[in-house]
Amino acid sequence: MIALLKLLARLPLPVLHGLGIALGWIVYFSPGRHSGRMRRNIASSGLCVPGHACWRLQLRAIGESGKSIAELMAVWLRPYPGTLKLVKGATGLDHFEAALSSGRGVVLMSPHIGCFEIISLYVASRHPFTAMYKPPRDRLLAQLMRMGRERGQARLVPADLSGVRAQFAALKRGEAIGILPDQVASSGDGVWAPFFGRPAYTPTLAASLQRKTQAAAFFVVAERLAWGRGYQLHFRPFGGALPADKAEAAACINHEIEAIIRRFPTQYMWTYNRYKRPGGVAEPAS
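RESULT FIELD:
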């Protein structure tokens, strides 16, 4: 199976993205909650007027969601130099490099937008990079994920206390770490904070590590270019330190993510169940 996927990974990116658009529609019309969740999340975001405008956004988001799956073959399974060639530019990279050159660590936050999987590979081609990893239950997918992500100077650590310690140590060494700031936090590791006007259980790890180490905080997005031309990375520094209060820090992070989504609305993962309540977590205060 892996050999077959490696052969498919050689297909030109425009072809993979074309297949991905078809895949996006197949998933959309398949049994499950994906289509309904996408419609609800888009409609409640306030990014479009309910009706025709939201439908246009949804049409494009369906295709982009399929591309995000199909492109993984190129990102994970092509030879490393070939994967790096898919990155056509990186705005704000000089600010990111300057922060690392000053000896400060960098907390790099990449939301579920565009081809976020290629970000760590690009950074790891230039600097040591540590990210948490929670293997999926499927053995093949877990193997592919590890093969694809742990290249260059990338290091994967468990998504547990030992992983948090490893990321803390990396920041103290003046290195970069990666965090998905818009995933649903596990019980006890997050706070309720507004996200497009609705309470979302938001991780507190990024803010905690940034305050404890005085690391620089950056957001980064890998914009998916049209017609399979590759990806443009956008590094965006967060000015100053995140608030000490966990709820305030989470609200600041969500506010920044909202601004990025407004810039790339079709490439956000609208099917993600961002508003779910983890087991053992109390309902948000009304």
